[in-house]
Amino acid sequence: MDLLNSILVKPFGDMFGAPDFLIQVLWEGLVAGVLYALIALGFVLIYKSSRIFNFAQGIMVVFAALTLVGLHEKGVPALLAVPMTLAVMFALAVAIERVVLRPLVNQPDIILFMATIGITLFLVGFGELIFGGENKVMITQQLFIPTGSFEFEPFGGFVSIEQKDVTAVIGAVLLVAGLILFLNRSKMGRAIRALGDDHQAALSVGISLSTIWVLVWFIAGVIALATGIVWGARAGVSFALEVIAFKALPVLMLGGLESVLGAIVGGIAIGVLEKLFEIYWGQPLLGGNTETWFAFVFALVVLLFRPQGLFGERIIERV
After folding, report:
1. CB–CB of 35/168 below 8 Å?
2. Which of 26, 173, 182, 196 is deepest in the core (most CB within 10 A)?
3. What pLDDT, in 10s, does the model give residues 105-130?
4. What pTM did the predictor assign?
5. Angle between the 163-185 and 187-197 helix axes, to the nearest 10 degrees?
6. Of 61, 21, 23, nearest in space to 41 by CA
7. CA-wise closest residue to 127 among 72, 64, 81
8. Taking Cα atoms as reference points, which of 265, 241, 244 lies closest to residue 253?
9. pLDDT tens track for 118-165
């Protein structure tokens, strides 16, 4: 009975007993979830357009953040370093398309996946050669990202919200809104969607595969830079930052590998649920540290009932 009470009753009693703390937990989960969604979007865009699972998305986050900080350390003003970093990410997208992807057109999916692992290893070595392996501090203040906090007293309690987290959420919302607008309203955006729906039909009407690949890899680079700035402001910039990409995997499992909406909803759901579980179940019952595995277990349970994810299309094969 005590165990059932600890699982089914006490956590909800704690939530309603301290609503201010619940708000704090939900906010922290929302911020993490938005960042997970951003990373997952990079995976989704590349997979939709090329059927390539981009294992290099995590190191692209690190490489973009290191480039930004490295340029500033060389004396480039922060606001000029941002467009210069975007130019570097565009050059990287062109190089990947020309050197790696173009020679591997029509190769099996596993070959293309292994190629992205090769890109990852190259960027790790190249990044260490150019920027060194030591940790760096994100140029938060130079980018005019506020570092204070908003403090509230709801329900007679206390909630503190860091201004950089608010900036991160607003920036992510604007980035996603712009991306959705681009995909739905622009000619190139519609071409990306067409390529994702039917490769052969899209190619038959004159859509350039190489142009689309460069574009989606560049968009993934833009997302990587935005993610790197936000995560770097929270935890510093180092190659250890690459592991945050693994948190995108349960998001993709939950939302579906081809769904932009699934990446957004899945990311927020994973962020909020893992934080709630950690605080109200993980720490009291399991000693904490459940955030490292909760998302994967939760996504696995979802896959048992819906293998294509919540927003993926059900595939029916008739034989």
Report:
1. yes
2. 196
3. 778 888 888 999 999 999 999 988 88
4. 0.87
5. 80
6. 61
7. 64
8. 265
9. 999 999 999 888 888 788 889 988 888 888 899 988 888 899 999 999
